[in-house]
Design goal:
Blueprint lengths: L2 H23 L1 H7 L7 H18 L3 H17 L1 H10 L2 E3 L2 E3 L1 H20 L8
Antiparallel strand pairs: 1-2
Helix pairs in contact: 1-3, 3-4, 4-6, 5-6
Length: 128
Amino acid sequence: MDKYKKISLVILVAFYVLAGLNHFRDPGFYYAVMPNNLLYPETVNLLAGIAEISLGLLLIPTKTRYWAAWGIVLMLIAFLQIHVSMAFKAPMKLNSITVTPFLAWLRLFLQFVLIYWAWWHTTDTKKA
């Protein structure tokens, strides 16, 4: 694995572990963006946080990286509906942040970048 891919992996691990921890630190942020028809938002938030932390940590060993990266890809695809919904609900307030339509559409685009980034690590070899 080249130097840039190793740096990318370290950032990716940190990103998902910290994002997962944030589900417990600030659950209200996530409740505000969940679709109104979603059942059991507290449970969904808890499971999303656990999934992000677990998958982030499972990126570290080369033996589990392939499956962890695919898990992140699938999780991000599942979360697409939230970002599409945000794009159509904007403008909206999330804590102290005002999400404008531009920011919401930018965040939706970023979701595809995150999917690609995680997918890129499905190609890591055992020689890492």
